[in-house]
Amino acid sequence: MAAGDLPEQILANFLLQEPDVEHWLDAIEFSCRMMQAVGNNWDYKQRADAKLTPDEAIADLNHRFLQHGVGYQYVSGKIIRYDSQFLHAKVVKPALDLLQDKRYLGANDEFLKAHEHYRKGEVKDCLADSLSALESTLKTICHKRRWTFQPKDTAKTLLDICFKNGLIPTFFQSHYSALQSTLESGVPTVRNRLGGHGQGPQVIDVPEHYAAYALHVTASAIQFLIEAEKALP
Known about the structure:
By secondary structure, this protein is mainly α. The chain folds into two domains: 70 residues, no CATH class; 147 residues, Four Helix Bundle (Hemerythrin (Met), subunit A) (Up-down Bundle), CATH 1.20.120. A hairpin with a 2-residue loop joins strand 1 and strand 2.
């Protein structure tokens, strides 16, 4: 770094020379967040070399990641892993969009942390935050609807409360048992058996594909639950 270098030159040199992928992704994430933070107060047209708005630049970044097979996307202020285009488009992104509602602030924070842990290979922490995001979503729904629950209620208890209060429309009642079983045996079970409650005298090696499964089940469950709550009268 030479004296007098402009910030963008410093960043470009760092990205070209940094061998650690995680550090490289952190720099990209920070840059995107800064662009979004100043975007509303920055007239990019004042820069002769600026061709894109911050939102356009981020969209272009994600397109180039996809185009070149880089398995990451910048979404909701975070660089997240992008293992499947279909799952990302149909499951993960819709869930993140729904969690932008300020009432789901806690669930959104936990779900993004789960993705950050997944990106860094921290599988057990990913499972723990996946469950926390699901539980926070359920608690928010209960709070919005004034359904009685306890702060320490587990996902299973919260699911029971939501279902008993008609979260699922009547015409879906025939699918009630299968749906509840899917939700209850998804994230909570995976996390409880592999990610939480202590691991005893032996270190438990949790495979990475469990984390991917937990994230996608969490996203699907969150999307379903929030949309179902919105559909209630």
